[in-house]
């Protein structure tokens, strides 16, 4: 059946968000000598001392937070004390302030913000010396690279490609190397403009795009995503580096969704017109359209689905959950029967705090983003209840990938699953075609901006 497609809606919110982003980028070009933060930004460095900063190192932030409070405080104190140790060579501390600039001699612990950040936009200017090697850690993860692109000893590591890349990404991974060489000559100030949403990072160096919305890998455990929150860290690595004009702005959820929606959207078409259930089948009377969204009615449910069928595809949507909310995405659903078993799968849509909200314990394969009963997703990347979440699902053959709010939380292959929750087989998991839909479970879960891109 031919898919019923609706014109792709470009919201005024998206246009405003992108216009604002463009304005900030343009402003960045004029920000080189400013000491005041741009509108909406906060200065991380006050130009006088290290108020708001502590010591840090290349250390898994999750493990730091998991330490007993006394042990964590002792570790942070040890790092912080090393920042102010006096160098025998210079007679100055490893970190000090001079002429409104934050200076590091290349030694001591890293300067780390006391505050942790989630989604953010960051400006930072730096000036370094030949043979230097430094970087900016994002949420405590290494790193946006800074180094001497003329240092032939580091050419084997990619130094000749310049600064700004996500150097600790896997070889060949997007973002590992900068797109262009944008470093200025030594003695001049360089400026970074960094946007991080979920695991997605974009970097401009001296107003040139060097990393384009790439996934930042978790250096400490590549099987899991980067932390949802963590500090900004200025790395020390053997050569003097000076910093100034360090400004940050926290990005709210709706704006983060618009940023995610604005990348890689070629070929997507809306499958919901925002007014009624044209193009949909199943128990649509159990659902309602509210403010341009499909919402399951309280105490009702069942699986509604597109009249069109899909084989390989990508789906994009936003969803909003009530406390303890439960629903699911029907993948290659045949049009009747229990969605989780007769279709290829049901991808869970569930409050990450479901157990606390309901008192019921769940199997890891029931958590949000999981292939229900078969493959568990990573938890902890939803926005607070009442906010809209952005999700992208890719289905190719027997493989399924789920990205939530810019974070890859599942990448699995149902053909390789041999153990099932409660030993309940999933006879539909090998289906190669079917409908897309929502599997309601009595909770008022809502979906909007629902788009599909066929991959056949």
Q: What does it look like?
A:
Helices cover 12% and strands 34% of the residues. It has six helices and 26 strands. Strands 1, 3, 4, 6, 9, 10, 11 and 13 form an eight-stranded antiparallel sheet that branches. Strands 14, 16, 17, 19, 22, 23, 24 and 26 form an eight-stranded antiparallel sheet that branches. It has 456 residues and is mostly beta strands. A hairpin with a 2-residue loop joins strand 16 and strand 17. The protein has two domains: 239 residues, Exo-inulinase, domain 1 (Jelly Rolls, Sandwich), CATH 2.60.120.560; 191 residues, Jelly Rolls (Sandwich), CATH 2.60.120. The longest helix is centred in the first third of the chain and has 18 residues. The N terminus is likely disordered.
Radius of gyration: 24 Å
First-residue to last-residue Cα separation: 14 Å
**Structural class determined from secondary elements:** mainly beta
Q: Identify the CATH class of the largest domain.
A: Mainly Beta
CATH architecture of the largest domain: Sandwich
Are there runs of 5+ residues with pLDDT below 50, and where?
1-34
Helical content stands at: 10-25%
Structural key phrases:
single chain, 456 residues, mainly beta, Jelly Rolls, 8-stranded antiparallel beta sheet, 12% helix, elongated, disordered N terminus
